[in-house]
Every structure is written in C-alpha cells, then in structure tokens.
C-alpha cells in the first residue's frame, strides 16, 4: 500500500498536488511543456508514478489543474494588491508589477505554441483563466478614465488589449531587475497617466 503523506487522505491529496505542481513549475522553466512527462514529474516530485496517474490521467489534465491552481493564487494576490491601492493609477501600477513578477515565475509556452500542444477543449479551459484578469484590467482603466486620472485615445478596450499583449512578453522581462519599473512607466504612459502613481 502506498505511503499516505500528511496523515489523512485529504492532506495526502493536497501534499501530492503541491509537490507535483512545484515539480511541474521547475520542469516547465527548465525544459518547456513539450519535454514534460508524467513519469518525469512524478520522479521530480518524489511521488510514485501510480500516485500521479491517480490524480492526473495525462499531461493535459496536469497542465489544466496546474493553471487553475496558479490562476487562483494569482487572482487572490491581485485582489489583495488592488485593495491596497487607493486610486486607479496606483491600481494599474500594482497590476503591472504583479503581472511582471508572475511572468518571471510562470513558464507556460506562448499562446500559439500552447494551442498546438493541447487539444482545443483543454486550450479553451486554460485560456478562460485569462478572462477575469483581462476584465479586471479593463475595469481599472475605465475607472481611471472616469476619475480623470487617465486619458485614453479612442476605444479603451483597444488600449487594454495592447497592455495585455505587452505584459505577456515574458522573454522581454526575464532576468531584468528593472523590468517592473519600466513596465509600469510604459503602461502608465499608454493610458495617459504620465508619471502619476
């Protein structure tokens, strides 16, 4: 009988998932999703191969669970950061800083490569986790316009899409200690907030 980690089945499940997600994060960073196997993740996580298959029947299921877990963490951290920022300009700066920080921690293939690696339904499930984040960004920009802190030319949603696209370029910020400050300055200029915040 396999060893139960954490003393109970619920604790065991949480411990296995925690180890597996930590191992997957490292493997994604080091090798990319194409090189990830369930057996390799199990070995890196220090859990039995049968255990990982009990939790995740295939690589896609593992990646979906991982993205859902990471998205939940991100949204909780984002809500805390935004709650601590009193103005839309400061909220936008907090949003950008957190996004840049996560880009250096979260190493999924870019959209097209990920779409090619997954079946369409799995890709849609993963992509759906970006929707609430994009909606939050849109809300911040709209609040900034209403508060006269931001002056966006044309359709604000076009600017929001451009910000989202710019902030998804992880290869541009990796290893750069000044990346967050630069990104904040550029994004604030994009919305006409100048050097505020």
Plain-language structure description:
The chain is an all-alpha fold and 197 residues long. It folds into 2 domains: 57 residues, Orthogonal Bundle (Arc Repressor Mutant, subunit A); 132 residues, Orthogonal Bundle (Tetracycline Repressor, domain 2). It is built from 11 helices and no strands. The longest helix is centred in the middle third of the chain and has 25 residues. It is elongated. The protein starts with 8 loop residues before the first helix and ends in a 7-residue tail after the last helix. Pfam families: TetR_N (PF00440). Keywords: DNA-binding. It comes from Pseudonocardia ailaonensis.
What attributes characterize this protein structure?
single chain, 197 residues, mainly alpha, Arc Repressor Mutant, subunit A, Tetracycline Repressor, domain 2, 2 domains, 11 helices, 71% helix
Short description:
The chain is an all-alpha fold.
Helical stretch tally? 11
Give the helix/strand class. Answer: mainly alpha
- Give the CA-CA distance, first to last residue: 57 Å
> Helical content, roughly?
over 70%
Mean pLDDT: 82
Which parts are unreliable, with pLDDT below 50 for 5 consecutive residues or more? none
Question: How would you characterize the largest beta sheet?
Answer: none
DNA-binding region: 37-56
Organism: Pseudonocardia ailaonensis
Domain HTH tetR-type: 14-74
InterPro entries: Homeodomain-like_sf, HTH-type_TetR-like_transc_reg, HTH_TetR, Tet_transcr_reg_TetR-rel_C_sf
């Amino acid at each position: 009988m396999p060893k139960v980690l954490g003393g109970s089945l619920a604790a065991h499940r949480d411990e296995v998932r925690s180890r597996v997600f930590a191992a997957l994060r490292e493997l994604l960073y080091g090798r990319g999703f194409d090189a990830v196997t369930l057996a390799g993740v199990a070995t890196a996580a220090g859990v039995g191969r049968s255990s990982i298959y009990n939790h995740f029947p295939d690589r896609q299921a593992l990646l979906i669970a991982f993205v859902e877990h990471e998205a939940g963490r991100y949204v909780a951290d984002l809500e805390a950061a935004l709650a601590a920022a009193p103005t839309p300009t400061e909220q936008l700066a907090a949003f950008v800083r957190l996004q840049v920080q996560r880009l250096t921690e979260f190493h999924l293939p870019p959209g097209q490569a990920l779409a090619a690696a997954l079946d369409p339904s799995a890709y849609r499930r993963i992509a759906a986790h970006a929707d609430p984040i994009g909606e939050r960004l849109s809300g911040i920009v709209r609040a900034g316009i209403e508060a006269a802190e931001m002056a966006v030319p044309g359709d604000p949603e076009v600017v929001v899409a451009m910000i989202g696209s710019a902030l998804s370029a992880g290869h541009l910020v990796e290893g750069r200690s000044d990346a967050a400050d630069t990104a904040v300055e550029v994004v604030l200029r994009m919305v006409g907030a100048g050097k505020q915040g």
